Amino acid sequence: xxxxxxxxxxxxxxxxxxxxxxxxxxxxxxxxxxxxxxxxxxxxxxxxxxxxxxxxxxxxxxxxxxxxxxxxxxxxxxxxxxxxxxxxxxxxxxxxxxxxxxxxxxxxxxxxxxxxxxxxxxxxxxxxxxxxxxxxxxxxxxxxxxxxxxxxxxxxxxxxxxxxxxxxxxxxxxxxxxxxxxxxxxxxxxxxx
Length: 193
Prior knowledge:
Helix content: 55-70%
Radius of gyration: 27 Å
Low-confidence stretches: none
Largest sheet: 2 strands, antiparallel
Order of helices and strands: HEEHHH
Oligomer: single chain
Strand content: 5-15%
Shape: elongated
Strand order of the largest sheet: 1-2
């Protein structure tokens, strides 16, 4: 007579056991990819938020000395228009690259798409940095003026306008820092292959 092996509730057979091994390299790769996704997501908020804040900025003030209505809009200054376009382009790219970043979390072996992303991320870093730097010069002139060129500061009359454009610069420079961290984390992820 052959003996039948029966498994009771709560017991496991030796053939049904699965051993799950966690490779430390895989965990690190997925962690770096997840960190890159987080940097990309927060950079989306910084770039699009800055573009929206600057793009909707306008203020009207009545001059008491000349009884004239003075208006200040971002579109009056080309550097601020470049700032809006640069942040909008970078924000659009970052939104479109989020699915690829999720793919990199799932599949850690994708090398070509990582190289393409790091190249375009570097271009977007340069674009946002240029836009923020150009707008910073204009915002500085709006706050301080230039006595040599006989340009008075306009922020004494248009305080709400100046507060909004200064706030949008802060968001854009935060996005620049996040894009730098994104490029660095992508480079580290590529170097670990």
